[in-house]
Amino acid sequence: MFEGEPQAPFAYEGLDRVFHEKARLGIVSSLASYADGLTFSELKSLCALTDGNLSRHLQVLEEAGYVGILKGYDGKRPQTRCRLTEQGRERFSDYLIALEEVLRRARQAAVHSERLPAQPTPKPA
Amino acid sequence: MNEVEHALSQIADIHAQLTASSRFRGFAPAAIGFNAALMLGVTVAQSAWPQVLAKDPLRYVAVWGATLGAATVVSATEAVSRSRHLHGRMADALLGSTLRGLLPFAAAGLVIAAAVCRFAPASAWMLPGLWQILVGLAGFSVASSLPSAIRLASGWFFICGAITFGLGARSGALSPWMMGVPFVAGLAGVAIIFHGANGERNVRG
Prior knowledge:
The structure holds two protein chains of two kinds.
Chain A: H1 22-31, E1 38-39, H2 40-47, H3 51-63, E2 67-74, E3 77-84, H4 86-115
Antiparallel strand pairs in A: 1-3, 2-3
Chain B: H1 3-20, H2 29-48, H3 50-53, H4 57-87, H5 91-119, H6 126-141, H7 150-171, H8 176-204
Helix pairs in contact in B: 2-4, 2-8, 4-5, 5-6, 6-7, 7-8
Protein backbone atom coordinates (compact mmCIF):
# COMPACT_ATOMS: atom_id res chain seq x y z
CA MET A 1 0.00 0.00 0.00
CA PHE A 2 1.34 3.43 -0.93
CA GLU A 3 1.77 5.94 1.88
CA GLY A 4 -0.92 8.63 1.92
CA GLU A 5 -3.24 6.58 -0.32
CA PRO A 6 -6.68 5.58 0.97
CA GLN A 7 -7.01 1.96 2.17
CA ALA A 8 -8.75 0.70 -0.98
CA PRO A 9 -8.75 3.45 -3.61
CA PHE A 10 -10.59 1.30 -6.15
CA ALA A 11 -13.35 0.05 -3.82
CA TYR A 12 -15.71 2.90 -4.86
CA GLU A 13 -17.98 2.47 -1.84
CA GLY A 14 -20.18 5.34 -3.08
CA LEU A 15 -21.23 3.43 -6.22
CA ASP A 16 -24.44 2.16 -4.70
CA ARG A 17 -25.96 -0.73 -6.70
CA VAL A 18 -29.44 0.68 -6.20
CA PHE A 19 -28.54 3.72 -8.34
CA HIS A 20 -26.17 1.82 -10.63
CA GLU A 21 -28.83 0.61 -13.02
CA LYS A 22 -29.78 2.49 -16.18
CA ALA A 23 -33.50 2.97 -15.51
CA ARG A 24 -33.06 3.83 -11.81
CA LEU A 25 -30.23 6.26 -12.64
CA GLY A 26 -32.62 7.99 -15.06
CA ILE A 27 -35.38 8.14 -12.43
CA VAL A 28 -33.11 9.53 -9.72
CA SER A 29 -31.43 12.03 -12.09
CA SER A 30 -34.88 13.31 -13.10
CA LEU A 31 -35.99 13.65 -9.47
CA ALA A 32 -32.71 15.36 -8.50
CA SER A 33 -33.82 18.64 -10.10
CA TYR A 34 -37.17 18.89 -8.33
CA ALA A 35 -37.46 19.62 -4.59
CA ASP A 36 -41.16 18.74 -4.63
CA GLY A 37 -40.71 15.68 -6.81
CA LEU A 38 -42.49 14.59 -9.98
CA THR A 39 -45.73 12.79 -10.71
CA PHE A 40 -45.72 9.18 -11.89
CA SER A 41 -46.79 10.20 -15.41
CA GLU A 42 -44.12 12.93 -15.63
CA LEU A 43 -41.45 10.41 -14.62
CA LYS A 44 -42.82 7.87 -17.10
CA SER A 45 -42.45 10.26 -20.01
CA LEU A 46 -39.08 11.68 -18.86
CA CYS A 47 -37.52 8.22 -18.50
CA ALA A 48 -39.39 6.49 -21.37
CA LEU A 49 -40.47 3.59 -19.15
CA THR A 50 -43.64 1.52 -19.11
CA ASP A 51 -45.98 1.67 -16.10
CA GLY A 52 -44.85 -1.76 -14.91
CA ASN A 53 -41.13 -1.02 -15.26
CA LEU A 54 -41.39 2.35 -13.55
CA SER A 55 -43.39 0.85 -10.65
CA ARG A 56 -40.85 -1.91 -10.19
CA HIS A 57 -37.86 0.46 -10.11
CA LEU A 58 -39.66 2.93 -7.83
CA GLN A 59 -40.39 0.08 -5.43
CA VAL A 60 -36.66 -0.77 -5.26
CA LEU A 61 -35.80 2.88 -4.60
CA GLU A 62 -38.56 3.22 -1.99
CA GLU A 63 -37.46 0.05 -0.16
CA ALA A 64 -33.91 1.46 -0.01
CA GLY A 65 -35.35 4.62 1.57
CA TYR A 66 -34.16 6.82 -1.30
CA VAL A 67 -37.51 7.78 -2.78
CA GLY A 68 -40.74 8.76 -1.04
CA ILE A 69 -44.02 7.99 -2.80
CA LEU A 70 -47.05 10.07 -1.92
CA LYS A 71 -50.49 9.04 -3.15
CA GLY A 72 -53.01 11.86 -3.35
CA TYR A 73 -55.44 13.62 -5.65
CA ASP A 74 -55.14 16.32 -8.32
CA GLY A 75 -58.72 17.58 -8.19
CA LYS A 76 -60.72 14.37 -8.47
CA ARG A 77 -58.01 12.41 -10.27
CA PRO A 78 -55.75 10.16 -8.20
CA GLN A 79 -52.11 11.20 -8.46
CA THR A 80 -48.87 9.54 -7.36
CA ARG A 81 -46.00 11.91 -6.57
CA CYS A 82 -42.42 10.71 -6.13
CA ARG A 83 -39.58 12.65 -4.54
CA LEU A 84 -36.04 11.99 -3.35
CA THR A 85 -35.77 11.64 0.43
CA GLU A 86 -33.03 13.39 2.43
CA GLN A 87 -31.17 10.07 2.62
CA GLY A 88 -31.66 9.54 -1.10
CA ARG A 89 -30.22 12.97 -1.89
CA GLU A 90 -27.19 12.35 0.32
CA ARG A 91 -26.50 8.88 -1.10
CA PHE A 92 -27.02 10.04 -4.69
CA SER A 93 -24.54 12.86 -4.05
CA ASP A 94 -22.03 10.22 -2.83
CA TYR A 95 -22.77 8.16 -5.94
CA LEU A 96 -22.06 11.12 -8.25
CA ILE A 97 -18.80 11.87 -6.42
CA ALA A 98 -17.69 8.23 -6.81
CA LEU A 99 -18.67 8.15 -10.48
CA GLU A 100 -16.75 11.38 -11.06
CA GLU A 101 -13.70 9.80 -9.41
CA VAL A 102 -13.89 6.75 -11.69
CA LEU A 103 -14.00 8.99 -14.77
CA ARG A 104 -11.13 11.18 -13.55
CA ARG A 105 -8.97 8.09 -13.04
CA ALA A 106 -9.95 6.86 -16.50
CA ARG A 107 -8.95 10.21 -17.98
CA GLN A 108 -5.61 10.17 -16.13
CA ALA A 109 -4.94 6.63 -17.34
CA ALA A 110 -5.75 7.64 -20.93
CA VAL A 111 -3.41 10.65 -20.76
CA HIS A 112 -0.68 8.48 -19.21
CA SER A 113 -0.95 5.82 -21.93
CA GLU A 114 -0.77 8.48 -24.67
CA ARG A 115 2.53 9.74 -23.20
CA LEU A 116 4.14 6.27 -23.22
CA PRO A 117 6.49 5.65 -26.18
CA ALA A 118 4.94 3.45 -28.83
CA GLN A 119 6.07 -0.21 -28.60
CA PRO A 120 8.20 -1.25 -31.59
CA THR A 121 6.45 -3.84 -33.74
CA PRO A 122 8.47 -7.08 -33.91
CA LYS A 123 10.12 -7.72 -37.27
CA PRO A 124 9.04 -10.86 -39.09
CA ALA A 125 11.62 -13.66 -38.89
CA MET B 1 -14.70 17.48 -25.96
CA ASN B 2 -14.16 13.71 -25.68
CA GLU B 3 -16.62 11.28 -24.13
CA VAL B 4 -15.03 11.31 -20.66
CA GLU B 5 -15.07 15.13 -20.52
CA HIS B 6 -18.69 15.12 -21.68
CA ALA B 7 -19.66 12.59 -18.98
CA LEU B 8 -17.84 14.62 -16.29
CA SER B 9 -19.66 17.77 -17.36
CA GLN B 10 -23.03 15.96 -17.23
CA ILE B 11 -22.27 14.65 -13.73
CA ALA B 12 -21.34 18.16 -12.59
CA ASP B 13 -24.65 19.46 -14.00
CA ILE B 14 -26.70 16.78 -12.20
CA HIS B 15 -24.81 17.45 -8.96
CA ALA B 16 -25.47 21.18 -9.25
CA GLN B 17 -29.18 20.54 -9.85
CA LEU B 18 -29.30 18.15 -6.88
CA THR B 19 -27.78 20.81 -4.62
CA ALA B 20 -30.00 23.59 -5.99
CA SER B 21 -33.20 21.58 -5.45
CA SER B 22 -32.28 20.40 -1.93
CA ARG B 23 -33.91 22.22 0.98
CA PHE B 24 -31.38 23.93 3.26
CA ARG B 25 -32.41 23.16 6.85
CA GLY B 26 -29.45 24.79 8.57
CA PHE B 27 -31.30 27.84 9.88
CA ALA B 28 -32.47 27.11 13.41
CA PRO B 29 -35.82 28.61 14.53
CA ALA B 30 -34.36 29.12 18.03
CA ALA B 31 -31.42 31.18 16.73
CA ILE B 32 -33.71 33.31 14.54
CA GLY B 33 -36.09 33.75 17.51
CA PHE B 34 -33.12 34.78 19.67
CA ASN B 35 -32.21 37.42 17.07
CA ALA B 36 -35.78 38.76 17.11
CA ALA B 37 -35.59 39.04 20.92
CA LEU B 38 -32.16 40.72 20.66
CA MET B 39 -33.55 43.31 18.26
CA LEU B 40 -36.56 43.93 20.49
CA GLY B 41 -34.15 44.52 23.38
CA VAL B 42 -32.06 46.96 21.30
CA THR B 43 -35.20 48.81 20.14
CA VAL B 44 -36.47 49.21 23.72
CA ALA B 45 -33.03 50.20 25.02
CA GLN B 46 -32.52 52.74 22.25
CA SER B 47 -35.96 54.25 22.95
CA ALA B 48 -35.30 54.35 26.71
CA TRP B 49 -31.77 55.83 26.47
CA PRO B 50 -31.65 57.87 23.27
CA GLN B 51 -28.86 60.07 24.64
CA VAL B 52 -26.60 57.05 24.97
CA LEU B 53 -27.66 54.80 22.09
CA ALA B 54 -29.06 57.21 19.47
CA LYS B 55 -27.37 60.52 20.23
CA ASP B 56 -26.60 61.19 16.56
CA PRO B 57 -27.09 59.35 13.25
CA LEU B 58 -23.65 57.72 13.42
CA ARG B 59 -24.33 56.32 16.90
CA TYR B 60 -27.71 55.02 15.72
CA VAL B 61 -26.12 53.30 12.71
CA ALA B 62 -23.27 51.89 14.83
CA VAL B 63 -25.73 50.35 17.34
CA TRP B 64 -27.87 48.76 14.63
CA GLY B 65 -24.87 47.75 12.53
CA ALA B 66 -23.40 45.94 15.55
CA THR B 67 -26.79 44.32 16.28
CA LEU B 68 -27.17 43.08 12.69
CA GLY B 69 -23.57 41.81 12.78
CA ALA B 70 -24.18 39.93 16.04
CA ALA B 71 -27.42 38.45 14.66
CA THR B 72 -25.57 37.30 11.52
CA VAL B 73 -22.84 35.64 13.61
CA VAL B 74 -25.44 33.83 15.76
CA SER B 75 -27.41 32.58 12.73
CA ALA B 76 -24.31 31.63 10.73
CA THR B 77 -22.63 29.73 13.60
CA GLU B 78 -25.80 27.80 14.29
CA ALA B 79 -26.37 27.16 10.55
CA VAL B 80 -22.90 25.66 10.10
CA SER B 81 -23.17 23.24 13.02
CA ARG B 82 -26.80 22.37 12.31
CA SER B 83 -26.24 21.69 8.63
CA ARG B 84 -23.22 19.47 9.40
CA HIS B 85 -25.56 17.47 11.65
CA LEU B 86 -28.59 17.42 9.32
CA HIS B 87 -27.11 17.35 5.81
CA GLY B 88 -24.08 15.14 6.40
CA ARG B 89 -21.79 15.06 3.35
CA MET B 90 -24.00 17.50 1.41
CA ALA B 91 -23.56 20.16 4.11
CA ASP B 92 -20.67 22.01 2.44
CA ALA B 93 -22.41 22.18 -0.94
CA LEU B 94 -25.66 23.43 0.60
CA LEU B 95 -23.89 25.94 2.85
CA GLY B 96 -21.88 27.20 -0.14
CA SER B 97 -24.96 27.58 -2.30
CA THR B 98 -26.87 29.47 0.45
CA LEU B 99 -23.87 31.70 1.16
CA ARG B 100 -23.48 32.56 -2.52
CA GLY B 101 -27.09 33.76 -2.44
CA LEU B 102 -26.83 35.80 0.75
CA LEU B 103 -23.30 37.26 0.72
CA PRO B 104 -23.75 39.83 -2.08
CA PHE B 105 -26.64 41.45 -0.18
CA ALA B 106 -24.75 41.43 3.12
CA ALA B 107 -21.75 43.00 1.39
CA ALA B 108 -23.97 45.63 -0.25
CA GLY B 109 -25.53 46.53 3.13
CA LEU B 110 -22.09 46.89 4.69
CA VAL B 111 -20.59 48.95 1.86
CA ILE B 112 -23.60 51.28 1.61
CA ALA B 113 -23.56 51.87 5.39
CA ALA B 114 -19.81 52.57 5.36
CA ALA B 115 -20.13 54.94 2.39
CA VAL B 116 -23.08 56.87 3.90
CA CYS B 117 -21.37 57.20 7.30
CA ARG B 118 -18.10 58.30 5.72
CA PHE B 119 -19.32 60.68 3.01
CA ALA B 120 -22.95 61.62 3.77
CA PRO B 121 -23.83 61.14 7.45
CA ALA B 122 -26.82 63.50 7.01
CA SER B 123 -28.37 60.86 4.71
CA ALA B 124 -28.22 58.11 7.35
CA TRP B 125 -32.05 58.14 7.44
CA MET B 126 -31.86 56.02 4.24
CA LEU B 127 -30.11 53.09 5.90
CA PRO B 128 -32.96 51.38 7.83
CA GLY B 129 -35.12 51.25 4.69
CA LEU B 130 -32.24 50.14 2.46
CA TRP B 131 -31.17 47.41 4.92
CA GLN B 132 -34.72 46.05 5.05
CA ILE B 133 -35.00 46.05 1.25
CA LEU B 134 -31.67 44.19 1.02
CA VAL B 135 -32.82 41.60 3.60
CA GLY B 136 -36.00 41.11 1.56
CA LEU B 137 -34.03 40.66 -1.68
CA ALA B 138 -31.61 38.26 0.05
CA GLY B 139 -34.60 36.19 1.20
CA PHE B 140 -36.00 36.04 -2.33
CA SER B 141 -32.62 35.02 -3.74
CA VAL B 142 -32.40 31.89 -1.55
CA ALA B 143 -36.14 31.18 -1.37
CA SER B 144 -35.91 28.15 -3.67
CA SER B 145 -33.81 26.25 -1.12
CA LEU B 146 -35.92 27.29 1.91
CA PRO B 147 -39.57 26.65 2.88
CA SER B 148 -41.81 28.36 0.32
CA ALA B 149 -43.46 30.59 2.98
CA ILE B 150 -40.13 32.40 3.30
CA ARG B 151 -41.28 34.48 0.30
CA LEU B 152 -43.95 36.04 2.56
CA ALA B 153 -41.32 37.09 5.09
CA SER B 154 -39.11 38.43 2.28
CA GLY B 155 -42.06 40.42 0.95
CA TRP B 156 -42.65 41.80 4.46
CA PHE B 157 -39.05 43.07 4.69
CA PHE B 158 -39.24 44.52 1.18
CA ILE B 159 -42.51 46.41 1.80
CA CYS B 160 -41.38 47.57 5.25
CA GLY B 161 -38.15 48.80 3.66
CA ALA B 162 -40.08 50.88 1.13
CA ILE B 163 -42.34 52.35 3.84
CA THR B 164 -39.43 53.04 6.21
CA PHE B 165 -37.53 54.71 3.37
CA GLY B 166 -40.54 56.95 2.69
CA LEU B 167 -40.92 57.83 6.38
CA GLY B 168 -37.22 58.59 6.67
CA ALA B 169 -37.30 60.80 3.57
CA ARG B 170 -40.26 62.77 4.94
CA SER B 171 -38.90 63.40 8.43
CA GLY B 172 -35.15 62.97 7.95
CA ALA B 173 -35.11 61.51 11.48
CA LEU B 174 -34.07 58.08 12.75
CA SER B 175 -36.38 56.28 15.17
CA PRO B 176 -35.50 52.98 16.91
CA TRP B 177 -38.89 51.63 15.79
CA MET B 178 -37.93 52.12 12.12
CA MET B 179 -35.60 49.16 12.60
CA GLY B 180 -37.36 47.46 15.51
CA VAL B 181 -40.85 46.85 14.11
CA PRO B 182 -39.81 45.38 10.70
CA PHE B 183 -36.97 43.24 12.07
CA VAL B 184 -38.66 41.94 15.25
CA ALA B 185 -41.90 41.03 13.46
CA GLY B 186 -40.08 39.77 10.34
CA LEU B 187 -37.61 37.57 12.23
CA ALA B 188 -40.36 36.22 14.50
CA GLY B 189 -42.25 35.28 11.33
CA VAL B 190 -39.16 33.59 9.86
CA ALA B 191 -38.65 31.61 13.11
CA ILE B 192 -42.29 30.44 12.97
CA ILE B 193 -41.91 29.44 9.29
CA PHE B 194 -38.77 27.37 10.01
CA HIS B 195 -40.37 25.82 13.08
CA GLY B 196 -43.44 24.87 11.04
CA ALA B 197 -41.28 23.43 8.23
CA ASN B 198 -39.34 21.28 10.71
CA GLY B 199 -42.59 20.00 12.23
CA GLU B 200 -43.99 19.18 8.78
CA ARG B 201 -40.81 17.28 7.91
CA ASN B 202 -40.98 15.27 11.14
CA VAL B 203 -44.57 14.29 10.33
CA ARG B 204 -43.69 13.29 6.74
CA GLY B 205 -40.59 11.39 7.92
